[in-house]
Amino acid sequence: MNDASLTFIGGGNMAASLVGGLIADGWDPARIRVADPDPGRRERMAARHQVATTPDNQVAVSDADVVVLAVKPQVMAAVAQALAAGIAQQQPLVISIAAGIRESTLRDWLGADTAIVRAMPNTPALVQSGATALYANTAVSDGQRSLAESILRAVGLVIWVEDEALMDAVTARQPARNSDCPREQRGCWHCRPPSGPPGWHLKVPTTRPPCDITLPRLAARPSAPSASCRTVVSRN
């Protein structure tokens, strides 16, 4: 579904990783636009990925099929509220990768009928070796779910959760120091839910050592892996 028009609001590190992964997966750079107030970020994004850039968020969303909100949580309210009219007119799928901002809050800012997917990529997604939890509200169609999944797969494994409260279980914990990891798994992200019964256990082989992810049983369902990432799923 890479014929969709995709706009990133914010051109920081995670946006750059997503853009690079999408293009590597065959997404046409001509269908990607990045809005950012920082001229340096716009120049780097355009030079590295040959995508269109703009300082104007309103222009950026005017013809977008998907809008990825990739700004810092502390500025999300102002950014989202300023975009609300354009979002209501265009009715794109909105994907938020801002940590800690719930779907209900985004809906308050953007409009009650907005199709919203919350995405929570973990740190290895910056090098396209991560895991991302996805949660969709009821306005998101099946086609939009598939589109969101294809976008976030550009940076690693994608896992849908049906309960938004479980999103933290996917990216819950990073070792405080690299030395906290076993030597053979340093550089990986280990994710364990803080409590609850044993659940699905996923091993994600990537270019880095295998990363282990544990999810509460039946609370989440892993998506089919992309060709570049095999996934082994077993019960604990």
Give an overview in words.
The protein is about 30% helix and about 25% strand. The protein is α/β, with parallel strands linked by helices. The protein has one domain (about 5-170): 3-Layer(aba) Sandwich (Rossmann fold). The strands form 2 sheets. A 9-stranded mixed sheet has the order 3-2-1-4-5-6-7-8-11, sandwiched between helices. It starts with 5 loop residues before the first strand and ends with a strand.
- CATH class, named Alpha Beta
CATH T-level fold name? Rossmann fold
Derived from helix and strand composition plus strand pairing, the structural class reads alpha/beta
Q: Write down the Rg.
A: 17 Å
| Number of strand elements | 12
Gross CATH architecture: 3-Layer(aba) Sandwich
Domain count: the total is 1
Unreliable sequence segments: 173-236
- H/E order of the elements? EHEHEHEHEHEEHEHEEEE
Strand content: 15-25%
By CATH's scheme, which homologous superfamily applies? NAD(P)-binding Rossmann-like Domain
Termini separation (Å)? 35 Å
Major sheet strand order: 3-2-1-4-5-6-7-8-11
Q: Give me the number of helical elements.
A: 7
Largest sheet: 9 strands, mixed
Shape designation:
globular
Average pLDDT metric: 75
- Helical amount: 25-40%
